[in-house]
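Researcher: Let's do a round of design. I'm pasting the structure tokens now; please hold your answer until I've finished.
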């Protein structure tokens, strides 16, 4: 399997990975390489700010197309701070739950906020 290193700094054009637009762009890049059976390494070197909306768009969406074993085999990350690693893990856990039963998940959220 070929390996592709994606430098997040280059993708977002700076030290802040914050926008969903940048996350969507990264998602599309990841998908293109996964479809060609690449092993992908996301390198977060020089990223000072990483927020959940970016991770939801870039990483969370992957769970709508691929299962956990496939992504564990094909996707890894480098240079995440411990805090950002926790944020990534939480994003992945929520995405897996969401895409496992999207309709029920959304129903529970609506009920929790009284918006049935």
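Researcher: That's everything. Go ahead.
Model: Designed sequence:
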């Amino acid at each position: 399997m070929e390996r592709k290193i994606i430098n997040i700094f280059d993708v977002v054009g700076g030290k802040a990975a914050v926008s969903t637009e940048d996350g969507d762009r990264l998602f599309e890049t990841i998908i293109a390489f996964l479809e060609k059976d690449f092993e992908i390494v996301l390198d977060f070197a020089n990223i000072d700010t990483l927020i959940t909306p970016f991770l939801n768009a870039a990483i969370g969406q992957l769970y709508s197309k691929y299962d956990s074993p496939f992504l564990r085999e094909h996707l890894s990350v480098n240079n995440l701070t411990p805090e950002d690693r926790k944020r990534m893990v939480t994003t992945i856990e929520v995405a897996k739950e969401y895409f496992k039963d999207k309709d029920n998940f959304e129903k529970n959220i609506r009920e929790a906020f009284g918006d049935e």
